[in-house]
Design brief:
Elements lengths: L2 H15 L3 H8 L3 H8 L7 H11 L3 H8 L14 H25 L2 E15 L6 E12 L4
Antiparallel strand pairs: 1-2
Helix pairs in contact: 1-5, 2-3, 2-4, 3-6, 4-5
Length: 146
């Protein structure tokens, strides 16, 4: 089974079971953002967690096997060469669809504003090496119908 087929099966089962990403993540014992990203094909999942996810969604062993496969992360756009900008680009490439799915699930059909928006970057000391903490805060803008 290809990762794209795996994602289609998971999204279909998720909708049929009326489960959110947080519920699915709880069932498989992983964080919601990571779980969503793996289900969208951008990360691999350990066997035990993949099996739990499939049990919760009623999916076959082929889906578990596909979840465990290493992903191929490629981006179709021109990749920036500055290391910091590249890493941010990589984050959006790997987690962008996950962020979109979770925003839509929590707020509805819409976007996070980049105009009514703030971002904070903090240095978090860590004995294993300092960490960069980026906090983005944007107003939710629902799409309108007419």
């Amino acid at each position: 089974m290809k990762k794209t087929e795996m994602t289609e099966a998971i999204l279909k089962a998720k909708a049929e079971k009326k489960m959110g990403w947080e519920q699915i993540a709880e069932k498989c014992g992983l964080a919601p953002v990571f779980t969503t990203s793996a289900c969208l094909g951008m990360n691999s999942m350990p066997k035990d967690n993949a099996d739990k996810l499939c049990a919760a969604l009623g999916l076959p062993a082929e889906v578990s096997a596909a979840l465990q496969e290493f992903p191929h992360k490629s981006f179709d756009k021109l990749v920036p060469t500055d290391p910091v900008i590249y890493r941010l680009y990589e984050i959006v490439g790997v987690y962008g669809e996950t962020i979109k799915q979770i925003i839509n699930e929590k707020f509805g059909d819409g976007i996070m504003s980049a105009i009514d928006f703030s971002m904070h970057i903090e240095k978090v000391p860590d004995p294993k090496g300092d960490r960069v903490k980026v906090t983005m805060n944007g107003k939710f803008l629902p799409y309108k119908t007419w």
